[in-house]
Amino acid sequence: MGRQEGKRMSITALTLVITMLAPMSVMAASATSNSNDLTYEPTKKIVAEKAKLLTEKYGTTSVQYALIDSGEIVVSGQTGKNDLKDKVPLTSNTIYGIGSTSKMVLTTAVMKLVDEGKIDLDLPVVNYIRDFKMKDNRYKQITPRMLLNHSSGLLGSTGSNATLYGDNDTYSHDTF
Predict the structure, then answer these.
(1) Residue 32 has pLDDT above 50, yes or no
(2) Can you say whether the dihedral through the CA atoms of 70, 102, 111, 6 is positive or negative?
(3) Long-range CB contacts (< 8 A, 24+ apart) of 167-174?
(4) Could you tell me the pTM of the whole model?
(5) pLDDT grade, residue 120 (50/70/90)?
(6) Residue 76, beta-bridge partner list
(7) Domain ranges in the chain?
(8) Is 106's pLDDT higher than 80?
(9) Spatial distance between the Cα atoms of 49 and 59, rounded to a whole number of angstroms
(10) What single string gives the DSSP state of each residue in 77-107?
(11) What are phi and psi of 79, to 5 degrees?
(12) For residues 25 and 150, which has the higher predicted lDDT (pLDDT)?
């Protein structure tokens, strides 16, 4: 395992730890006190420490976090830098680009539909979205699985065809 891969795995593991610890500390607090007296101080401390660890030890530029209970933000914070030159302060109002996070959300939703038997990953998308049409007739063969693993051949699936209209590159389709 290379250094970069090990670093990524460590960051992923710590992120999962944060995700798991925050709710558990709240549950522990609620088990020992009346719900009206519920305090999130233990959770605030644990999450702040884990976020700081990510930025100071593992080189993550910044971390923002929030825990919502019954629609109310009960724990939130941030640590690290807003930019690599540290000229712009990191605040609770700092906005991040969503990046590829939407891929995880979409994949989770699709897989839930698969679990419910509403979507078959290997049936063509046109079975589910009747209005889906493309210039190239091979679109009729595109499946949800191909969309999820980026092998559908849709524009932008390779760096060389990200902005080409009418491109007939078959690399993804033929390779995957």
Answers:
(1) no
(2) negative
(3) 168/136, 173/138, 173/141, 173/146
(4) 0.46
(5) very high
(6) 66
(7) 3-95, 102-175
(8) yes
(9) 15
(10) EEEE-SSTT--S---TT-----TTHHHHHHH
(11) -150, 155
(12) 150
Tokens of 80: 């690290």
How far CA 27 is from CA of 21, 64, 69, 134, 148, in Å, comes to 10, 22, 11, 51, 35
Amino acid identity, position 47: V
Alpha-carbon span 144 to 126, nearest angstrom:
10
134 Rama sector, left if φ>0, alpha if ψ -120 to 50, beta otherwise: beta
Residue type, 65: Y
DSSP state of 118: S
- Residues 140-159 have a mean pLDDT of 78
Structure tokens at 10: 């460590």
Angle value at C-alpha 112, between 108 and 117, nearest 5 degrees: 145
Sign (positive or negative) of CA dihedral 123, 125, 131, 134: negative
Residue 118 CA, chain-centre distance (Å), reads: 23
d(CA 80, CA 10): 18
Average pLDDT for 13-25: 52
